[in-house]
């Protein structure tokens, strides 16, 4: 068999097996050979994949390097079965809600997977602005997505991410990994022959809005008012034509048909002197948005000798987002060093520094200061250019131009004056020393840190709807986490038996403090400083510290590499629990059987068959300061507020029990591989907050109660349909189904009573009932008869209103899937990835309000009726109990306002099924004979795209929607969502 020596391509097939093959070779016969892939598991321990009794899926660095994302985690979307990444659609930093295998906790923030960077857990904390997404009419401020710890990780520094999905996979990390873990390994020096290797990666990308709602531009502002001649008309202010109709936010005015009316004149800042053409401005919302631009540049240097390896990198990302005057820049610095001091002692360290800075990030939600609010209230006949001067002449910084309502802030005032600044400095790193006593015994001591120093500023100018005298805020957040652990390792072969044992201990300490200053009103306009406050409010910083001490052990044994068994145990002592329950132990057992070797089934066309199973139980501690009564500093210096939640001095840890089993296959010389996993996860004795009688002096109390079960199926398939010297095609697909069931609830919610986990906008309820699921959405629906016909009120002609809330749907899909294709044609690489979901529902506040105001195409029915009325399709209830057709006509504005009212969850909730072309890339790598004279070892040019195409019936911007309530990302609700982006970019990669 003749071969040419060429570089080797490592093909990782869905984390099941790996094959090593010649990327460019001349062969007379296919000679693919299997090898054992190494993955990083809990505590940073490297294991052979075939030894694991659970799924550990590995995603390599090229995914993060090739498709540049502001947040690296979004590059995983659709690529790993059971993994769901959701954002609130709230701007460029896009804090991610990462879950694995469904929702397990009644606490929405208690479902996140743990992020581990180089063996050290990341707290990934997020501090919100203290405000809900729905805030209309309440004054105050709005949520701002200022990013979380994930945003600080530079994608170019990631070597791999291993996804440990269940409690079995992450048992050694304790309660924080009860929902699974993402093990991030950053790059280290790996140059050959002692040579320095320099890499440069640069990209430039452009963002545009992916999808718009179906705005209607056939009718303008108004409320169906008629003039003396009985015709619909419009008048900005009282005029010769009639009364003013220009003060409404509704678009039930006259049709655009070439007529002339007295309208707003931007030069006069009032009514026009002459009648003006009644016309639509079809770019009066879309025209506000710009093309976003992101540039990213990364340079790294690495080298190694027989005793030392190192890597250093610098990266700078500059983002100008699609909303004017928003975006951020991020500077990253990373350094790693591994040095063999002696033949027995090795020292290594990894250090990452990130500085993320923004002068302005967009606010989200439904309130005056959000650009989403302006888009909802903008009328079809209003020119966006009328707002551009921002200030009335002679009243700069004092009185804004907002000619149609004092409650609707000028969009350019929002963009250029209502600033939300942040600067985050984050350090993560570790240093470890490993001593090998002999070939069987070793000891590792490791210390890791995560240090966050964050400064925030909020500016609100004079005349803003919620702050007529202006507002200024400063927040200072410090969040430091220290992890120290030691790990003792023993390994030895006893004939065909191999034993590998690990025992260790760790101490985790987290300290958090936030200082908050607010200037309510400004003495001097435009002077944003605390010294300029009319009223200065200082929140005394309150500590929020916690500590966990742990001991743990792992014993791994195998017989002749045919049968593998793992047994783990961990005991935690948590400061968040009372003394009598502070200590809790949890074990796990997992096993794998290489059936293809046990039964000697391996042939050239049947390569690999593995059976695996695992069981694990994990204890979950609660949040700090839930055991005793603590007073909260109030806005008045020297005073405090009594707590509204009754503490529980007898809290116990939650229990999370996971069982899973699966099989892995590989056939046709590993060109076709299949993976299937069945799992069940029970979360019992949860720490939850329930309402209590107000007579007790409290509104809520904390208890242990409730049990939730998740059952699911995960399947992955990888294939190489074609492979020749100059052409190859790889396919990877995955499919996930998860079913969630609430098994028990507190006694207070027995029978038909439901436990309300959360509410949004005062009308959407996340209710839990026994037999139901987490994510069930409840609210008022249309009243229907037995035949499913809508029942109308005979007196009003409007839909009859039910007297109780009902289940409308569930926020989470029935199943999700991903599909990736990779082609190599000589020096060309072409790849694209689809993913999507089936099912799931989301309520849309934007749809409610724009439909109520007649601004969407779904409100055009009946507009051509000269009477300005419409008859709702349905029935009325007769006195004898029968039904007859509804015949009562009502005004269009009244009909649509009631049919799509905020409390009608049914008519404003939609299916979130979708298919997305998540990413695509075309790259060309120059051959070595071309780049050798340039002293380069690699040169690749590429064009890439993200979110290039989408199919969905969801009527708003994006079906992957969630509301940002304070810092909580709440799936199933769209409350002032910002547009999502379609991205096209260019990239150059070179190495020398």
Automatic annotation (TrEMBL):
<dbReference type="InterPro" id="IPR037066">
    <property type="entry name" value="Plug_dom_sf"/>
</dbReference>
<keyword id="KW-0798">TonB box</keyword>
<feature type="domain" description="TonB-dependent receptor-like beta-barrel">
    <location>
        <begin position="424"/>
        <end position="948"/>
    </location>
</feature>
<feature type="signal peptide">
    <location>
        <begin position="1"/>
        <end position="22"/>
    </location>
</feature>
<protein>
    <submittedName>
        <fullName>Membrane protein</fullName>
    </submittedName>
</protein>
<dbReference type="InterPro" id="IPR039426">
    <property type="entry name" value="TonB-dep_rcpt-like"/>
</dbReference>
<feature type="domain" description="TonB-dependent receptor plug">
    <location>
        <begin position="57"/>
        <end position="181"/>
    </location>
</feature>
<dbReference type="InterPro" id="IPR023996">
    <property type="entry name" value="TonB-dep_OMP_SusC/RagA"/>
</dbReference>
<dbReference type="GO" id="GO:0015344">
    <property type="term" value="F:siderophore uptake transmembrane transporter activity"/>
</dbReference>
<dbReference type="InterPro" id="IPR023997">
    <property type="entry name" value="TonB-dep_OMP_SusC/RagA_CS"/>
</dbReference>
<keyword id="KW-0812">Transmembrane</keyword>
<dbReference type="Pfam" id="PF07715">
    <property type="entry name" value="Plug"/>
</dbReference>
<keyword id="KW-1134">Transmembrane beta strand</keyword>
<dbReference type="InterPro" id="IPR012910">
    <property type="entry name" value="Plug_dom"/>
</dbReference>
<dbReference type="GO" id="GO:0009279">
    <property type="term" value="C:cell outer membrane"/>
</dbReference>
<dbReference type="GO" id="GO:0044718">
    <property type="term" value="P:siderophore transmembrane transport"/>
</dbReference>
<dbReference type="Pfam" id="PF00593">
    <property type="entry name" value="TonB_dep_Rec_b-barrel"/>
</dbReference>
<keyword id="KW-0675">Receptor</keyword>
<keyword id="KW-0732">Signal</keyword>
<keyword id="KW-0472">Membrane</keyword>
<dbReference type="InterPro" id="IPR000531">
    <property type="entry name" value="Beta-barrel_TonB"/>
</dbReference>
<keyword id="KW-0998">Cell outer membrane</keyword>
<comment type="similarity">
    <text>Belongs to the TonB-dependent receptor family.</text>
</comment>
<dbReference type="InterPro" id="IPR036942">
    <property type="entry name" value="Beta-barrel_TonB_sf"/>
</dbReference>
<keyword id="KW-0813">Transport</keyword>
